[in-house]
Amino acid sequence: MDELPGGIRRVTMPLPTRPGHVHCYLLPVEDGFVLVDTGLGIPDAGERWAAELDVLPAPVSTIFLTHFHPDHLGATQDVRELTAARVVQGSVDAGQAVLVWGSDGWSEVLAGWFHLNGVPEAVTDELIGQGALYRPFIRMVPDPEPVEGGAFLDGWELVAAPGHADGQLTLLRDGILIAADHLLQPISPSVGLWPESRPDPLGDYLDALRRTIDLAPHAAYGGHGEPMADPVGRAQELIEHHAERLRQTAAALGPEPRTGFEVSFPLFGESLQPAARRFAVAETLSHLARLVVEGRAHRHETTLDGDIVGVSYTAAQ
Ligand SMILES: [Zn+2]
Fold first, then answer.
1. Ligand 1 mean position to 121 CA, how many Å?
2. For the chain, first and last CA: distance in Å?
3. Are 131 and 75 within 8 A, CB to CB?
């Protein structure tokens, strides 16, 4: 457990895949601590949390979940059993969690969606297999208390930060931003287009980065990587990073239709492991969707007997 300014404590939990760790934060409040995120539900998550909670001077009164990705909420059941704390989660995000993790049907949805975007069958099978690896490490609670962006939780303002996840909420108080995966250093947070997600996640993300600049926090703590002493500068860097990536994406398009899968190769390289290709395709698609909104690309649907069987993109003239 690391001590940060303002009495905030940071607990870092291991991840079996990159980036190898996730940060959870303990925020001191009137009746104890708000725990922000619980880490992946690895087999010994309960023992690890028991050891951390043992040295905490006050109980955890609330567990707050920033977004539904496995590395952020996987051990929620374990921590609730240890603390009996209430669990609070954004209502949009809680809906996504149930959609994606609540049944086995999601793999089928994802497979169909990769297929539409040009991913060959054999590669799709590998991509889906990668996603299924996480399932045993997700132990959610069925009944989180819903909250909305703009609300306050024990004096912390919940600030919506869509992009990395549609319903992601960050926490802001006295210029300190608990940033979840909205701002990270040195990693660039992944912003993908996924099935059933909002239509222009990169547009949402760029708006959220501009809001961060307006809010002007003086420190930010992310879900991975290093603390940020200049969150405004980091937000500006990420805006520029995506402007450059949008230029590269536009340059990869021409008059011949290309699928998201095809465009992911010039952007992210030829040799990627399945897990990385999965994110590369989703990230390529978020940039293509943004280019369509900006009038810099066209989107085409191929239909067969009235069903959409393929989606491709061309450069705008
Ligand atoms: Zn994360």
1. 28
2. 55
3. no
The DSSP string of 167-185 is T-EEEEETTEEEEETTS-B
> What residues pack around ion ligand 1 (CB closer than 5 A)?
71, 181, 223
Q: How far is the CA of 224 from the centre of ligand 1 (A)?
A: 6
DSSP code, position 144: P
Rounded to the nearest angstrom, the distance between the alpha carbon of 290 and the centre of ligand 1 is: 23
Q: Which fold has domain 2-315?
A: Metallo-beta-lactamase; Chain A (3.60.15)
Which tokens sit at 66?
A: 């920033």
- What spacing in Å lies between the alpha carbon of 125 and ligand 1's midpoint? 24
| CA 182 – ligand 1 centroid, Å | 9
Beta-carbon contacts of 285 under 8 Å, excluding residues fewer than 6 positions away, are 117, 192, 193, 260
Separation of CA 117 and ligand 1 centre (Å): 25
Ligand 1 centre to CA of 72 (Å) is 6
Q: Which residues pair with 152 in a beta bridge?
A: 157
- This prediction has a pTM of 0.95
Are 53 and 25 in contact by the 8 Å Cβ rule? The answer is no
3-state helix, strand, coil in the chain (%, to 5): 40, 25, 35
Q: Residue 67 Cα, ligand 1 centroid: separation in angstroms? A: 8
Q: What is the pLDDT along the chain (317 residues), one digit of tens a residue?
A: 999 999 999 999 999 888 999 999 999 999 999 999 999 999 999 999 999 999 999 999 999 999 999 999 999 999 999 999 999 999 999 999 999 998 888 888 999 999 999 998 888 888 777 667 788 899 999 999 999 999 999 999 999 999 999 999 999 999 999 999 999 999 999 999 999 999 999 999 999 999 999 999 999 999 999 999 999 999 999 999 999 999 999 999 999 999 999 999 999 998 888 778 888 999 999 999 999 999 999 999 999 999 999 999 999 97
* Cα-to-centroid distance, 32 and ligand 1 (Å): 25
